[in-house]
Amino acid sequence: MNPVTATILQRLAGDGGFVSGGDLCNELQISRSAVWKHIVALRKAGYAIEATSGKGYRLESLTGSPVAEEVAPLLATESFGRNFIYLESIDSTNLRARASAREGAVEGTVVVADSQTEGRGRMRRAWVSPAGVNLYCSIVLRPPVPSIRVPEIPLVAAAAIHEAVTQECPGLAAFIKWPNDIITGGRKLCGILCEMESEPDCTHFVVVGFGLNVNLDPVPEELRKIATSIAIETGLRMSRARLLAAVLNRFEQLYRDWLEKENLAFILPYLEAHSWLKGRELKIEQFNTVLTGTEAGLSPQGHLLLRTVDGALLSVTSGEAHLLPVNHEPRSA
């Protein structure tokens, strides 16, 4: 968005009532015709703006798009989202965030796109990323911790996203699926991808990316058995800007808490209370093996605890968890 257009939007959004064209001319040192051109640009972008002779301009509604001008007023963060990069379309927000991190981007830098052409999740799986409906966001972190602790971060992010989404959508029955998904109705609502550049005793940076299906309806036919959205589950269309701000606010809080702790013990009760896998019979697919057993909780390091049929308790550090057919019934909140 043009900087002057963005300033006019912020002025209208912050005032709540009418703002005279003369005031905007004086504040921005532009002509009335120039002000009008920016108003027209905002209307074309979807903003409902009333223009009344003798009163000026009044913003009637926002678009809910995850642009800085709509997200920033809702932030209660110190760093998350304060450096905000928004793009209409990009190959991948994680790729852009990693490039920005290598160039020195500060902690909390956020890269958001309206659509992605090469969105991806774990195992390089494609993440369908159409425009105008979902959230695609990546956050640059610079945690002063050894790299061995970084695998805990996706669960911190999952707790933050789950809490933010369920608070904004009280009727949504959502669960956290170890290690990096939010599930509702047995289908994926959100995926999290965490990448880092580090040395054994030093983490240079971490990028936490997530794709959250918000107003996508319908889901592409080939994905309907495995993916869903807030709109499909609740019948509501949500403001993506409001949801993003809620996620960033909660994620920064939990991330700061995590930095002060030695592990994930402080959020284990939340993770386990909202676990999709809790107490269920599973198979865990790893690169060269498949493990089966009953979910028995999480370790303070975020490892999945699996009780095998012979009574052994395994600590699983990574893998793809699947419910066995015996317990495929939906889980209620």
Automatic annotation (TrEMBL):
Pfam families in alphabetical order: BPL_LplA_LipB (PF03099), HTH_11 (PF08279)
DNA-binding region: 21-40
A GO biological process held by the record: regulation of DNA-templated transcription
Amino-acid positions noted as binding biotin in the UniProt annotation, renumbered to this chain: 92-94, 116, 120-122, 188
SUPFAM superfamilies in the record: Class II aaRS and biotin synthetases (SSF55681), Winged helix' DNA-binding domain (SSF46785)
Catalytic activity: biotin + L-lysyl-[protein] + ATP = N(6)-biotinyl-L-lysyl-[protein] + AMP + diphosphate + H(+)
Domain spans labelled BPL/LPL catalytic: 69-259
Single GO cellular component term: cytoplasm
Function text: Acts both as a biotin--[acetyl-CoA-carboxylase] ligase and a repressor.
Family listed: Belongs to the biotin--protein ligase family.
The protein's name in its UniProt record: Bifunctional ligase/repressor BirA
Classification lineage: Bacteria, Pseudomonadati, Chlorobiota, Chlorobiia, Chlorobiales
